[in-house]
Design brief:
6 helices; alpha/beta; 32% helix; globular
Length: 193
């Protein structure tokens, strides 16, 4: 129901928000099926940064001529060079990259937690909405999660990726021995902030 009448739009939006919130809590309450072995991990801290609107052919670390990725160029980490998006849209790509569909509960956060990691999910994306709810459900399973936008990704509150920096510093400086992070930057690489 697309209408120009504010009263009808309010009712439609209110109903929609309730349905998406129910869906979010339903997904959060699902239990994963992971039974990880007791193999020791190579590192005690893992950081996953996802630039959802970033293309690697515009990043120096992947061969772009302008040096716009100084951290990626010098970090002691692994750059994936042959990854192909697991979906045509951000939502489908992230769900298929971070979980084992159709059971979204089998995801990177659940696995890290079962391996004894303190998990963090810091995002400039939305928390509730048709395009946000499934991925946000993964993030809400983290021990600590921050969503700058409380509604969906088009939430009217303007937020900047730089607002995540204090949260990132807090996570990295925590005294927890084993840490796993997932940062979501909305169309910017951390170096450009």
């Amino acid at each position: 129901m697309n209408t120009g009448y504010p009263e009808l739009k309010f009712i439609k939006d209110f109903y929609y928000a309730q349905e998406e919130t129910k869906k979010l809590f339903s997904l959060i309450s699902e239990k994963d099926e992971f039974q990880p072995s007791n193999v020791t991990t190579l590192f005690n801290t893992y950081v996953v940064v996802i630039g959802e609107s970033a293309r690697r052919d515009f990043m120096h670390a992947y061969g772009f001529p302008i040096n716009n990725t100084p951290f990626m160029n010098s970090a002691n980490g692994i750059l994936f060079t042959h990854y192909i998006s697991a979906g045509a849209t951000t939502q489908h790509s992230l769900i298929n990259s971070l979980s084992i569909p159709p059971k979204i509960a089998n995801n990177i956060i659940s696995l890290a937690k079962k391996r004894g990691f303190m998990t963090y999910w810091l995002s400039n994306q939305g928390a509730v909405g048709f395009n946000d709810t499934p991925v946000a459900a993964i993030g809400k399973k983290a021990d600590y999660s921050v969503f700058l936008k409380k509604g969906n990704f088009s939430d009217s509150r303007a937020s900047n990726d730089a607002e995540l920096l204090p949260e990132i510093a807090k996570a990295i400086n925590s005294s927890q021995q084993k840490k796993s992070y997932r940062y979501s930057f909305n169309g910017q690489s951390p170096q450009s902030m």
